[in-house]
Amino acid sequence: MDKLIEILSDLHPDIDFESEDGLVDNGILDSLDIVTLITEINDKFDVSIPAEEIIPENFNSVQALFALIEKLDEE
């Protein structure tokens, strides 16, 4: 999870990603951030996020995003 927090911190160094649970709902991550995030996750975690998984619920918190990465890694 540290790698994921590092990726997010590069996008928005002023946000406490460990406690924030409304990254999309609160407008912290916008569509460009999500595209960048997907690219970084693909590179660093060697998983591909399919279009149907690109929903706010999967990107609202570090925990949700990490759960998605783990799920995709197991497939």
Quick recap:
This protein has 75 residues and is an all-alpha fold. It contains 4 helices and no strands.
What is CATH's topology name?
Non-ribosomal Peptide Synthetase Peptidyl Carrier Protein, Chain A
Which CATH first-tier class would you pick?
Answer: Mainly Alpha
Which radius of gyration do the C-alpha atoms yield?
A: 11 Å
| Low-confidence parts | none
Task: Looking at this protein, list some descriptive labels.
75 residues; mainly alpha; Non-ribosomal Peptide Synthetase Peptidyl Carrier Protein, Chain A; 56% helix
Task: Please tell me about this protein's structure.
The structure is a single chain. This protein has 75 residues and is mainly alpha-helical. It has a single domain (2-74), classed as ACP-like (Non-ribosomal Peptide Synthetase Peptidyl Carrier Protein, Chain A). The protein contains four helices and no strands. The two termini are 19 Å apart. The model has no long low-confidence stretch (mean pLDDT 96).
Question: How are the secondary structure elements laid out?
Answer:
Elements: H1 2-11, H2 31-45, H3 56-59, H4 62-74
